[in-house]
Amino acid sequence: MKNPGTFLCACVAVFVLSAAQGVAEQRQSADRSIIPGGAGQDRIAREVRHELVMLPYYGVFDNLVFRVDGRAVTLMGQVTRPTLKGDAERAVKGIEGVERVTNQIQVLPASPMDDRIRIAEYRAIYSFPGLDRYALQAVPPIHIIVDNGHVALEGVVASQADKEAAAVRANTVAGVFSVENHLQVEGK
């Protein structure tokens, strides 16, 4: 080696160029992650789901669903508290990459009769052997939506038998005008 300083400078230059190329590739990857329909949309969907289930007053009598279209999120479903509608919108607006939030969440009317039905439905479904295991989760997966005496079951269960058992139990509650079973079975 004629000049060790030249060799050292060449090594440093190669290192700096490869580091700069790595940063450029990371930036391009980040840009691709927010392209509509790409990996960024999947990331946004995961973060929206996480933010919604972490809302402090989100419970078994509320149903929050959403749709992600590129950088726009549409919130839908039903809630029993008006504040939950606003909390959901604020939480989703704070997610990186979300540019627009459309809040179509319905606030269910306050009704002592509906409140009585909610409690009776909860007891009928979650005290039934086989369905009682779902009550152990922080936010039970069977959501009971009551609107003027009409009940809708929303969420996900492990089997078709659980789906049918929940509907049968929901139909046993007095004062209910109708029951719609929108439960989904895992893996289907």
What does this protein structure show overall?
- This protein is of the alpha/beta class and 188 residues long.
- The protein has helices at 4-32, 39-53, 82-93, 112-126, 160-170, and strands at residues 63-69, 72-79, 100-103, 106-107, 142-147, 150-157, 178-181, 184-185.
- The strands form two sheets. Strands 1, 2, 3 and 4 form a four-stranded mixed beta sheet that branches. Strands 5, 6, 7 and 8 form a four-stranded mixed beta sheet that branches.
- Strand 1 and strand 2 (72-79) form a beta hairpin.
- The longest helix is centred in the N-terminal third of the chain and has 29 residues, at 4-32.
- The model is unreliable at 7-36 (pLDDT under 50).
Keywords:
about 190 residues, alpha/beta, four-stranded mixed β-sheet, 5 helices
Please provide a brief summary of the model:
The protein is α/β, with parallel strands linked by helices and 188 residues long. The protein is 44% helix and 22% strand. The chain has helices spanning 4-32, 39-53, 82-93, 112-126, 160-170; strands at residues 63-69, 72-79, 100-103, 106-107, 142-147, 150-157, 178-181, 184-185.
